[in-house]
Amino acid sequence: MSEETFQEPVLPLPSVITSFREDLVEPINWDIVPSAGEFGAKVDFVSGVMAIPLAGDAHSQRQQLKQLIQARVTPLDDSIYDELAKRYKIQGITTGILRAAESARISAITELFAEVKGLKLEPDGSEKITGKRLATANTAESWDRSVEFTLRNHGTKAFDSFASGVRSVNPEWSTALRKLNKRLIGTFNGSAADLGDTSPCSYGDDLKGPVGFQNTLYAANAVRDYLSDGYQAPQEMREMTKKSEDERAAKYGKTDKVDYEKNTLGDEQIDLDDSDIPDDFEFSHDDGGFAELIIDDTMPLTVEVNGYMRRKRRGMTSGRRVTYPSRMLTDPNRRVFGTKVKVKGGIVVVDISGSMSLSQEDIEAIVEAAPAAVIIAYSYCGSGVPNAWILANRGWRVRDVGSIGGRGNGVDGPALTWAIRHKKHNEDIVWVSDGQVTTERDGQNDEIVTQCAKLIKKHRIIMIPSVREAVAMFKNGKLVNKPAGPIRDALLGKPW
Amino acid sequence: MSKTYEGMPIPQCWIDAEDVMEAGTDRVIFYGPPGTGKTFGGLTLGVTGGKSERLICTEDMTTADVAGAFMPNVNGGFEFLAGSALRAWQGNGTTGSRLVIDEIDRAGGDVFAQMLAFTDTVDSASFTRPDNGQVVRPLPGFSVVMTSNIEDPNELPVALKDRFPVAIEINAPHPAALMSLPESLRQLAATIVAGKPGQRASLRSFYEFNKLSQSPAFTLERAARMVFRHMADPIIDALKIGTLTPDFSLTV
To answer: How distant is the Cα of B155 from the closest Cα of chain A, in angstroms?
Structure first.
């Protein structure tokens, strides 16, 4: 019987490879641990552990090559993704996009080496089916996954096969994905030395990373444009995304489904946590906050609103007081009891800053639809002068609103807390605002936007973006929450 | 800021060695993995008194290699020829020179005892020449560097450790020893020579690898296989990925 001998695999030399990095101060003494194929494969600079498949097949060798190149070129400090995502959040760049773009850069460099080593990636036949499946689903999520596939496989035969599958179902998608593929090929067109340059480079205050990482940023920008809410995405996808976001915003940002097939490019959708807002929350008036609310109570509310004082009564078949005895004889249903019809009301907070307006006709239209409404309008007009006006108060309204407001916002938050303090049980608060909230000095910051968003979520304040829409909603009797501007984005957890 | 040589950082072990020599220590052991340039460093580092003398210890060597022996001369007679240690004592006649003793742990008992005598302190060391009875003592400037491939200095004999209290682990090549390699090979050689056991190669391997890979008869891969054998593939991958050059070549 022959004795079987076990031959130790020849290990790669990551310590040698990383010693070539221009941005490495102390050499890394890597420990190599075997991984099961690509699952669990990783490069951890902090612990000096590289997990790679050690089998000798082509797929394992390719994975090994990719991990070694990652160790050679990728940023040493993992926090660069979060820092850059914060810095570029206004452009919609997320940590997920940056990581995927970096993976694409590493793949682009890997391809250059794989070609020389005869390890070029060939399609395995599943790509075309994946393309067909995603295009058939025709959802914003499936589009984003197609973009992600393109990013990870750009410039390869696998992408060509995928795009052909997409084209057989939706040619418009295929055209857009091919454009993205072309753009990514252009981005990663340099030599391995250029793409993987690890010379230290500044990415902003105290944030350093390798020069070659700039290519990752270019790719991230390209991908951003093609995601379902980006301007390069098919029109249908953009509309679908907007509709879905509108629905979520109307529910104060609540996510009620978990999509396990969601792509990894977007940030995780997290419900806005309003638990830190107490019931009696008041805004700070420090520098960078709102001004104090000063209500002008000299405005005469001299016009009585129809339908409030002399409320309509309605005949009922049961009740406590007989109001219509004659109906015993005249009404086949004998509705002799009378009950007062509930008068519509609510507290209507109206932003009348420069970007908004409120006419006398608007006031009259609102109180006609909701006679019990309290209307308070606000606009910051300078220190020490009134910045809020009560224009209607439960059955009475102003005769002529005159010329008020038209300046800054300044007191959005305090106007909302005033409404919360004055609302009756089961009464709605309606906030007519374009979602732009500003401080006393007409600035905007994360804190005031987030606090206002949390406040409207906590108290289920109905937000309507314009007076015209508010009037229309009051007239047809159905108030729909339609958050707008930075408040909408804050509710959706998006940058503004 | 770390010291550099021709733009390359000098490893700490060599900085220690230079500082020790400069401070006047004249008995030093260099130990560590083979092929890091310990002997080269011993022969050149801080040498002032003429040509250095080198002794390579083996089990079969005799005291003649150390102190000297009577040898036949051209006149048909015999004359006393000084050994390496005695020559180093006398140096250029006014200053003693450097004696480098390689692999002292391999020397036999007699040789070892004589080596201890020759490496003793200046006050205790003396040798009477058998040809003329002259008592010879080491001249000022005489110094000894002993090298060993042992990984742990505690493995050295106690008497030796007593004479050589300063022992420096040389675990990386001196940049000067890398200068004869092409620039693109220096970083690779520096790291692999200082690598983990089982993943190391000597400086001599790199000199040969460089020679072979510049020959038109050898591709880079073939040259690597000839020199590094089972480590050829990882070394070639490290070279190509490290320099980010998929089609790396050393051919001039």
So the answer is: 26
